[in-house]
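Hi support team,

I've been running sequence recovery on a batch of backbones for a student project. Most finish fine, but this one hangs at about 90% for roughly twenty minutes before it completes. I'm not sure whether the input is malformed or the queue is just slow. I've pasted the structure tokens below so you can try to reproduce it. Let me know if you need the job ID as well.

Thanks,
M.K.
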């Protein structure tokens, strides 16, 4: 007897199982009806949803001088949570330019806290950059902690916890649960054992697809920074479940695909537009997970820049808009259908089992 889990995971197993259960004399009729009813459900289960993870690169100049650009980014996310099926927002550090200036934190709060005006409440996280820490790797960043530390996320089920200025969140999207690990700036020099803490978080979420969000990791060319090398060696290379790293800090864009200890691909993604007009002109990254296309579509978009039209502007050069090929089941593990699909399959299974038994009763 197949289990319910197998029925859910193998979309056509429900058909096969019910045919086996029908009496031999009625198998042809039962099969026809089951196929008729089962195929639309199977098609529904085989159509995984696409979803978007938004990355907000270095926002420091917005907090210092252009707060309306920062809020235009987060208000666009709020307005498009449903249409873009946004599952998570990751700010990549350097929330502010000068951590000693309270008004800059106020501007950062006003922008990021807009994300709390979502229903359902949109999971989001930040990682501290060097400017959030007064350029002092290793020192505990008090202002960062006061504005974006655990106290802001009290009671939210998706906020996992924090250590020093690092934190983690989980979110559900496309039939999988993901782990976002926001690492402190330059964790090598942090007080305490940030790598040990992060490894503990990974170990307590075994096999969960994981993205590391950290400020300083890739260079704009020629690989990783010193901080990036340490993070790669300690957390990315040895942990197969880490499939992507988001970072900023270095001005520009860079994408690197590396191979971890298990021979799996890791997407390392740098985006930082702070050198552009108005501290970046509102450009953000959209990572559109599209299982049907076996790809993560990467788009760079500004809701603020209307040079491309009132609907905002996409940056379409090859560094800014491209696809990352990925076999989702192989790289991230099998997806579980959405609850509504499970419920439909369950109802269908019960109905068809009842029908099959009626067939058998009539035949005997
Ligand atoms: Zn920086």
């Amino acid at each position: 007897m197949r289990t319910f889990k197998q029925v859910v995971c193998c979309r056509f197993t429900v058909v096969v199982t019910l045919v086996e259960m029908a009496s031999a004399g009625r198998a042809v009729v039962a099969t026809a009806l089951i196929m008729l009813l089962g195929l639309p459900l199977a098609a529904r289960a085989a159509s995984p949803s696409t979803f978007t993870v938004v990355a907000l690169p270095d926002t420091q100049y917005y907090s210092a001088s252009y707060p309306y650009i920062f809020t235009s980014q987060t208000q666009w996310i709020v307005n498009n949570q449903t249409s873009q099926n946004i599952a998570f927002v990751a700010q990549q550090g350097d929330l502010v330019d000068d951590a000693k200036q309270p008004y800059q934190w106020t501007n950062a709060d006003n922008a990021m806290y807009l994300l709390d005006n979502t229903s359902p409440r949109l999971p989001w996280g930040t990682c501290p950059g060097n400017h959030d820490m007064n350029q002092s790797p290793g020192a505990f960043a008090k202002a960062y902690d006061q504005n974006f530390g655990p106290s802001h996320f009290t009671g939210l089920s998706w906020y996992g916890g924090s250590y020093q200025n690092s934190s983690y969140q989980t979110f559900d999207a496309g039939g999988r649960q993901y782990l976002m690990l926001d690492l402190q700036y330059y964790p090598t020099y942090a007080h305490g054992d940030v790598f040990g803490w992060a490894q503990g978080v990974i170990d307590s979420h075994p096999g969960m697809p994981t993205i590391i969000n950290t400020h300083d990791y890739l260079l704009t060319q020629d690989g990783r920074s010193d901080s990036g090398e340490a993070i790669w060696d300690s957390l990315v290379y040895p942990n197969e479940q880490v499939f992507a790293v988001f970072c900023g800090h270095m001005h520009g864009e860079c994408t690197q695909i590396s191979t971890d200890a298990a021979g799996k691909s890791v997407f390392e993604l740098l985006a930082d537009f702070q050198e552009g007009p108005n501290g970046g002109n509102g450009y953000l990254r959209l990572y559109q997970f599209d299982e049907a296309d076996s790809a993560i579509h990467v788009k760079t978009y500004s809701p603020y820049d209307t040079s491309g039209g009132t609907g905002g502007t996409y940056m379409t050069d090859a560094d800014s808009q491209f696809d990352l090929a990925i076999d989702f089941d192989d790289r991230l593990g099998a997806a579980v259908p959405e609850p509504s699909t499970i419920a439909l399959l369950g109802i269908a299974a019960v109905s068809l089992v009842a029908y099959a038994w009626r067939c058998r009763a009539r035949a005997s």
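--
Follow-up from support: It reproduced on our side and the slowdown came from queue contention, not your input. The CA atoms of residues 187 and 317 lie 33 Å apart. No action needed from you.
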